[in-house]
Amino acid sequence: MSGTLILIIFAAYFGSLYLISHIISKKSSDNDAFFSGNKKSPWYIIAIGMIGTSISGVTFVSVPGMVGKFDMTYMQMVFGFFFGYLAVAYVLLPLYYKLNLISIYTYLDQRFGFYSYKTGAAFFILSRIIGSAAKLYLIALILQTLVFDYWNIPFEVTVTGIILFIWLYTRKSGIKTIIWTDTLQTLCVIIAVILIIWQVSHLLHFNVSDAINYISKSPHSNIFVFDWNSSQNFFKQFFSGIFIVIVMTGLDQDIMQKNLSCKNLKDARKNMLTYGFMFIPINLLFLALGVLLLIFSGHQGITLPVISDEILPFLVSNYLGIGCLIFFTVGIIGASFANADSALASLTTSFCVDILNISSLDKDRATTMRKRVHFGMSLVFILVILLIHYIGQDNILNTIYKVASYTYGPLLGMFTFGLFSKTNIKDKYMPIVCIASPVACYAIEVILQNYLNYKVGYEILMLNGLLTIIGMLIIKQKPQQ
């Protein structure tokens, strides 16, 4: 019964998204609509939709699941996120609007040259494919367990079907469609997590006051850690949060593409600040849910799965009732689709603009090329998800941030060097610097772990950016006499 119900919810949900796509694409479905939303996107609609994009289905599952191991220390990073959003709003957005960019990596071409530009775009494409595929993999795995295993449908078919659905409703108008579908999906996510918290509290016979009291007194409600040997140390988490937002939002075509579809810089800044502020209470809700789940499982004597990402799906499907299962399904689909659809659009945009230089083609050829790339990126998503499934991971959110620390580090270094210095570099050597920096970071991480017993966290991102800057100073051009 539950598998059939989830399938019905999935079909109804997709039907709603496709209807929105059909209505929006009737007005405009050219490349301008796909890449920049015709520069007419309302800032408050983007702000709501961006929450769903950033949360993703992984946050929905991983953040409550990580409480048992890390308590609520994730909030240390979330606090850092907000200051990162301030930096993006007041440093990067003015630059992008001043240059009237479609792809933010065009800045690297103007500042340093061809090789830096292509290298920056390539690092974004690599990181976004891995990160978004990892997020969608977890959701596909959950749907496979809850629904498609019942009918003996292979995981490969499940993944292909999900990507096909996303391709269908994003293929015509891209960003112009996504800002509206993501708004619907974000509302579904927020409502879903609130209703799940309410249902768990009800099963525990808690009112609102009881729930808050039990959460605050739980040993898992601890937020701050100041032990330098811990990867959860406050300063590591807080400053990592700042830089993670700068690179995964401010230097990420996926998120910036939506911001650049606003009418002007003022609207884009309002969107960024609103979205950044709302991210704090929403993540607190997810962590509060994690604490409640641990309290519930303790009261019921339930043995939880070893893998943290399996805790919420396990409890929802076996102990929390059909109501929670419906809320969870809607939330997980909403969060995962909101992240994957914008990733697919931004990857298509970056590959078309940055790699293929689509602007040099006539309108009809450019539209045909964009459609082919969009379909090709969908196929790449399928292949990467299946590869992740073959490799396997425990906590996907941790994996995504760790991958980002290595792949976004060179972007952090290049943009920082470009914005805060006037020095020019020997552009042809930039690919070497951008490859050498992550390799050196990995070697440093291994040495610190093996010889000093220092466990490196996400601060490797800052080191990666610093090494890139040092490399750029090494290849700088001497001033002409």
UniProtKB/TrEMBL annotation:
GO terms for molecular function: symporter activity. The chain crosses the membrane at residues 6-24, 44-67, 79-99, 120-144, 150-170, 177-198, 234-251, 272-296, 316-338, 373-391, 403-420, 432-452, 458-475. It holds the Pfam family SSF. The lineage of its organism: Bacteria, Pseudomonadati, Bacteroidota, Bacteroidia, Bacteroidales. Gene3D superfamilies: Sodium/glucose cotransporter. One of its GO terms (biological process) is sodium ion transport. CDD domains: SLC5sbd_NIS-like (cd10326). It is found in: Cell membrane. Signal peptide: none annotated. Belongs to the sodium:solute symporter (SSF) (TC 2.A.21) family. GO terms for cellular component: plasma membrane. PANTHER family: INTEGRAL MEMBRANE TRANSPORT PROTEIN (PTHR42985:SF47), SODIUM-COUPLED MONOCARBOXYLATE TRANSPORTER (PTHR42985). This is Sodium:solute symporter. Its main location: membrane. InterPro entries: Na/Glc_symporter_sf (IPR038377), Na/solute_symporter (IPR001734), Sodium:Solute_Symporter_SSF (IPR051163). It comes from the Bacteria.
